[in-house]
Design brief:
This protein is an alpha/beta fold. The chain folds into two domains: about 190 residues, FAD/NAD(P)-binding domain (3-Layer(bba) Sandwich), CATH 3.50.50.60; about 110 residues, FAD/NAD(P)-binding domain (3-Layer(bba) Sandwich). It is built from seven helices and 17 strands. The strands form four sheets. Strands 3, 4, 5, 6, 7, 8 and 17 form a seven-stranded mixed sheet that branches. Helix 1 packs parallel to helix 2, helix 1 packs parallel to helix 7 and helix 4 packs parallel to helix 5. The longest helix has 23 residues. It is globular and about 55 Å long.
Amino acid sequence: MLPWRNVRALKYQKLEWAMIEDKTTDVLIIGAGPAGLSAAIYTARANRKTVVLRGKAKSRLEQAHLIENYPGVMSIKGTELLLQFEEQARHFGVEIIETDAIDLGLGFAPKMINTRSGMIIADTVILAMGKGSSKVAIENEEDYIGLGVSYCVVCDGALYKNKVTVVYGNDNDSFEDALMLEQLGCKVTLIVSGKEAQYNSELIAKIKSKDIPCINEARVTKVIGENVLTGIEYEKASEKSVLPANALFIITHGPGSTLLKRAGLEIDATNCIEVNRSQETNLQGVFAAGDIICGGMQIATAVGDGVNAALSCLRYLRAKKT
């Protein structure tokens, strides 16, 4: 992966190509749960340009059926409480972008974060992406990150022109990324975990018109290689098969704890980010809050963490100007 080049990339969207411009901000918050949105409200009210990334993974609050232990609210659905957080954040000017962070450059200033749709350059970063749900492991996945395994077609697709690629996903983004790779001159096979009927019919028709093989109701189980990726193993209807390939683009999930480790963050044995009482990580200008630091794992504690991270972030930004 080549994360820090200037990505003014082409992205396939609604069957058209469009330019994605780099974005700059004072504060970038990765995660749109209670911790991230609480931090965003504070930084935005302090007149700091604030961007929040909301990835594919749902907030744990969104999955909560009923909340009865959050102060000031007698009883509320998790989705409704999260919507209130979002509305308040937007009211104060927070920009919420639906995309995943797939590479982090945090050890220098400014911070540079690659997403599935472009690069964001930020003075500070607050990590509040939660712990997420356990993903189905792909054997050897982490060993081949940057050696054939990628999470971003926009970033790395052009590196595999005239080579054999596999896109693995579970939503319409997978179809768009497969079309992008075909446009870039790659040989593409698409593997999706769902049935054909659950995806956008226009995208399916476009995939078929480009003669891109699509394997439905399957999952990638293993990355195969020697120094670099040479193929993948997948399972369909309890039968395993092997596809030769030069690259595997994974759209089902982000790189997880590997993303944090590669960025230079100190994390403990349970993959929780280590912070001090001010929510500061070991990297200057980078803070963390919420379930990702494995604190109280409650809405109230996540909100408190987010506010504390925001206050520390604002102090850091003020100090930079003096």
